[in-house]
Write a structure and sequence with these properties.
313 residues, mainly alpha, two-stranded antiparallel sheet
């Protein structure tokens, strides 16, 4: 009986120590998670200024204080860091594939799909074409540096996974049909959110002169082309990441919507604040929805795929 009484307090002390140790580990992991993403946001902000310093972009200054511009830039970088860190964390494959793929995804979603529309609406946006091409160069350089920083700072959860998406369970004709249907769907999503969000704003109507100079047929064909690019971005995101079906579809769709839309909140001399924030809501909703639909339509069935030896990573 005496030994049993000594034994029970020892068990209770051990359980208390284990619980305390587990709580400490949870706090450390949370701080590490937050610290890495904060460091990534600061790196993104520094990279923005570094590229601007090395290759200056001469555009009219925004009609706000420099402090407000820097604050909005940091907010943008912080949101980008959260999303890109999640993509890097769920990445699979060799390190160089993850870097190149993530850089292509960032460039396509953040820069390419913004500049192509800016060029289409150049008579309204007012950014000179040479500066727009320079913005493409800036975006490409930043995308590569951001991908390098993310892969270096954020550990991949299953980089050496032996599983990959099986893309061969459907015929080539089936894939082509899916891509065509998705590309044709995008203009309708674009028009729906444009009408019910953007065109309900007097500021947006005034900015685009009530759409009087926009050729609707040409606009719809252009959005089909953009739909093809969005399908490519969704496929690339699926190829680069690993996760459950719903988890992966939501990650890719929301990543496309957030990364594409968040940059518009940065003050600009070419777009009034009221127009920027309306467009932010419109882009976030429309691109996220299409990204989710595209990821769902293009995702292959998850099954045991090609075995890749760990020593190749």
């Amino acid at each position: 009986m005496e030994n049993e009484m000594v034994y029970k307090p020892s068990i209770m002390k051990l359980r208390g120590y284990t619980r305390e140790r587990n709580d400490t580990m949870v706090i450390k992991k949370a701080l590490l998670w937050l610290g890495r993403r904060l460091a990534l946001a600061i790196l993104f902000l520094l990279l923005f200024f570094l590229v601007q310093a090395v290759w200056p972009l001469n555009l009219a200054a925004a009609p706000v204080s420099p402090e407000e511009t820097i604050l909005m830039l940091f907010v943008t970088c912080a949101v980008n860091a959260l999303v890109i860190a999640e993509l890097a964390h769920r990445g699979i494959g060799p390190r160089y594939i993850r870097i190149l793929g993530l850089a292509a995804f960032i460039f396509g979603v953040v820069t390419l799909q913004a500049i192509d529309e800016s060029l289409f609406f150049k008579s309204f946006v007012g950014i000179p074409v040479p500066q727009q091409w320079q913005l493409i160069g800036h975006g490409l350089i930043r995308a590569i540096l951001m991908a390098l920083a993310a892969i270096w700072l954020i550990p991949a959860r299953q980089a050496h996974s032996r599983y990959k998406l099986n893309w061969r369970h459907r015929s080539t004709a089936n894939w082509v049909m899916r891509i065509i249907v998705l590309a044709l769907l995008f203009p309708f999503i674009y028009k729906f959110f444009g009408y019910f969000i953007a065109w309900q704003s007097p500021a947006v109507l005034e900015y685009y002169q009530f759409g009087a100079q926009i050729d609707q047929t040409r606009l719809m064909l252009f959005q089909v082309f953009r739909g093809l690019i969005w399908c490519g971005m969704a496929w690339l995101g699926l190829y680069l990441t690993r996760g459950g079906k719903l988890e992966q579809i939501l990650l890719i769709g929301l990543a496309m919507g957030i990364l594409h839309s968040i940059q518009i909140i940065v003050p600009s001399s070419f777009m009034p604040e009221a127009v920027r924030y309306v467009h932010f809501v419109e882009l976030l909703a429309s691109i996220s929805l299409f990204g989710i639909i595209a990821a769902w339509g293009l995702r292959g069935e998850s099954r045991r795929g090609l075995y890749i030896r760990r020593n190749r990573y």
